[in-house]
């Protein structure tokens, strides 16, 4: 019997593919609905500029006063809070994702997935087909 030889498999780096998808389609797969930007948009709509200070001298990112106003408006229903949509968190729930392992994406991944999840999945399949991805972090 012959001694087994090394085999080579072609694969894509999942992180590089994600950066490509995000740049090409101008999306953030870790915050697809841009929920973290909602507070900044609210500040802009209230006229609180990026360099402005609240009455306590805090910038808008550190302002407890302005954030309290923002939360109050959310509670009264004046602003609808966007959901946090994280592709990676969804992916690790529906696929066999392991550090240093291979990930295979397919159309029927997560049959009960939401529209935004299907949209991102379609981008990966369009750009890279059924290629295996190396997942490592």
Structure description:
- With 137 residues, the protein is mainly α.
- It has two domains: 12-33 and 83-135, no CATH class; 37-76, no CATH class.
- The chain is built from five helices and three strands, in the order βααααβαβ.
- It has helices at residues 14-25, 37-46, 64-76, 87-94, 115-128, and strands at 12-13, 101-103, 133-135.
- Strands 1-3-2 form a three-stranded mixed sheet.
- The longest helix has 14 residues, at 115-128.
Please summarize what this structure is.
The chain has helices spanning 14-25, 37-46, 64-76, 87-94, 115-128; strands at residues 12-13, 101-103, 133-135. With 137 residues, it is mainly α.
Query: Using DSSP, what is the number of strands?
Result: 3
Number of helices: 5
Total number of domains: 2
Please summarize the sheet with the most strands: 3 strands, mixed
Name the poorly predicted regions.
none
Q: How much helix, percentage-wise, in residues?
A: 40-55%
H/E series, N to C? EHHHHEHE
